[in-house]
Amino acid sequence: MNITIIDVAKAAGVSPSTVSRVISGSTRISAATSKKVKAIMEELGYHPNAMAKNLVSRTTMTIGLLLPRNADEAFLDIFFPEVTRGILSQANRSGYDLLLKTGMTECEKVEAVTKLVKGRRVDGIILLQSRNKDAVVRFLHEEKFPFVLIGRTPEFPDIMTVDNDNRQAAYDVTRHLLQQGHTRIGFVGGPLEMVVSSDRFEGYRSAMQEAGIEPRPDWYHIEASKLKDDGYRVMSMLMGTPERPTALVVMDDLVAFGILSSLSELGYSVPQDMAIFGFNNNPMSPVSSPPVSSVDIGVYQLGFTAAQALVGSLKGQPQERRRTIVPHRLIARESSMHWINPKS
Amino acid sequence: MNITIIDVAKAAGVSPSTVSRVISGSTRISAATSKKVKAIMEELGYHPNAMAKNLVSRTTMTIGLLLPRNADEAFLDIFFPEVTRGILSQANRSGYDLLLKTGMTECEKVEAVTKLVKGRRVDGIILLQSRNKDAVVRFLHEEKFPFVLIGRTPEFPDIMTVDNDNRQAAYDVTRHLLQQGHTRIGFVGGPLEMVVSSDRFEGYRSAMQEAGIEPRPDWYHIEASKLKDDGYRVMSMLMGTPERPTALVVMDDLVAFGILSSLSELGYSVPQDMAIFGFNNNPMSPVSSPPVSSVDIGVYQLGFTAAQALVGSLKGQPQERRRTIVPHRLIARESSMHWINPKS
DNA sequence: AACAAGAGTGCAAACGTTTTTACAAGAGAA
DNA sequence: TTCTCTTGTAAAAACGTTTGCACTCTTGTT
Question: Are A99 and B101 in contact (CB < 8 Å)?
Answer without folding.
Answer: no
